[in-house]
Amino acid sequence: MHRRTLLAAGSAAIMQPTLALAQDAADPWGAAAGYPTGWGSPRGLSRDKRMRVGNFSGGFESMLSNRTIQCGPEDVLRDAPRGNLRYNFNGASKTPDDYMATAPVTGLLIARRGEVWFEKYQFGRNAEMRMMGWSMSKSVTSLLLGIALDRKDIASLEDTAAVYVPSLAGTLHGETTLRNLMNMSSGADIVHEQGNNTIYPAALTGPRADIESTVHNWNTRKEAAGTRFNYNELCPLTIGMVLRAACRMSLSEYAEQFLWKPMGAEANATWLTDSHRNEFNCIGFAARLRDWSRLGRLVAQRGHMNGRQIVSREWIESYSRWESNEAQVRYGALGTPAPAAYKAFIWHAKADGSWPLFSGAEGQRVLIDMKTQTVLAQTGIDSAGDWQREIYSLFQAAVAAG
């Protein structure tokens, strides 16, 4: 049942498990009800914890319109378990199993150069399930942007969005360069969480959801473009509009032809859309955990995978090179609680750019070490907890392993 039917009907099938779950505070993730899907209460895509496990692993696909990205011949991964992988955290020696026992993680995979060292699922999830990436979808968009530049579908990052989407001429986002859009520096007057309360109903969950009108109509400026990093959903949505126009196909079609099949993904992916079937590309990309790991491997191998150069080495290496007009996103300049850097919808945990990462709400992560080509892919259901520090200790141990 998709969004428009769901909103009109107020499905009893969805509401019934919510009522039952509400009586059991000792079961925060809905295990007793079989990890149900649905809007839950309070209504929202991720607010009700009892719906997250089911929603994040396929439930959204039954609730919201989406496109499918078909896979091709698989680039097979090799299982090579490392039973001796240990790390230290808060004075204790721990294993990846110990980490999962206390973290709100549905899946964890650690790999290097196509060898899977550790892979485990919990909360009733398994390797065949597609896992919602949330804002890791922005990093998928980044790879597509790089491919479009490589293929000359897009001429320059210094072009404004309106060069490719004439309907945006004269609007705030239309007059912003692709560089400033990809670096979350449009100058729009928006606060991420507050803005989402308007953007999501208008562009994804509402019965007449329309990305293009949402972007077109957000025109209040706070500062000049390029002044400040200001994380929000409108910047990637604008880049998505540019890609569709410049490449003359949907993002899903472009991803299938130039990323997903060439990379050797093992299963189809999906991408949530608005009512016009335009991808809500700030979030909404779902894939198996092994395919999320493959995306990390593609970055680690500087765009070369499955016997071909899928994204140019230049684009991947540009992630860790900040130009003179990108000072606002250099390491330590973001204003985030912990020092970090940003570039083209990719986060950086180290100043030298050697640890790029994809990051999504409620625990979605792909961590990459460029030197050893180690990748840690995680899907989760909650942002709370000390796991946000602990995951780096685990990853450092994997990077250091011979």
Secondary structure layout:
Blueprint: H1 3-9, H2 12-21, H3 49-63, E1 66-69, E2 78-79, E3 87-89, E4 92-94, H4 96-102, E5 105-112, E6 115-121, E7 131-132, H5 136-150, H6 178-182, H7 192-205, H8 211-217, H9 234-247, H10 251-263, E8 269-272, E9 285-287, H11 289-300, E10 304-305, E11 308-309, H12 313-318, E12 341-343, E13 346-348, E14 356-360, E15 364-369, E16 374-380, H13 387-400
Parallel strand pairs: 2-6
Antiparallel strand pairs: 1-8, 3-4, 5-6, 5-16, 7-9, 8-9, 10-11, 12-13, 13-14, 14-15, 15-16
Describe this structure in words.
The structure is a single chain. The protein contains 13 helices and 16 strands. By secondary structure, it is α+β, with helices and mostly antiparallel strands.
CATH architecture of the largest domain: 3-Layer(aba) Sandwich
What oligomerization state is this entry in?
single chain
Stretches with pLDDT under 50, minimum 5 residues:
3-23
Q: Sum up the overall morphology in one term.
A: globular
* Broad CATH class of the largest domain: Alpha Beta
Question: Could you state the CATH homologous superfamily of the largest domain?
Answer: DD-peptidase/beta-lactamase superfamily
CATH topology of the largest domain, anyone? Beta-lactamase
With strands numbered from the N-terminus, the spatial order across the biggest sheet is 2-6-5-16-15-14-13-12
What structural class do the secondary elements suggest? alpha+beta
Number of helices: 13
Number of domains: 2
Secondary structure: number of strands: 16
Largest sheet: 8 strands, mixed
Strand % is 15-25%
Q: SSE string, helix = H, strand = E?
A: HHHEEEEHEEEHHHHHHEEHEEHEEEEEH
Helix fraction bin: 25-40%
Rounded to an integer in angstroms, the radius of gyration calculated over CA atoms is: 20 Å
Distance between the termini: 49 Å
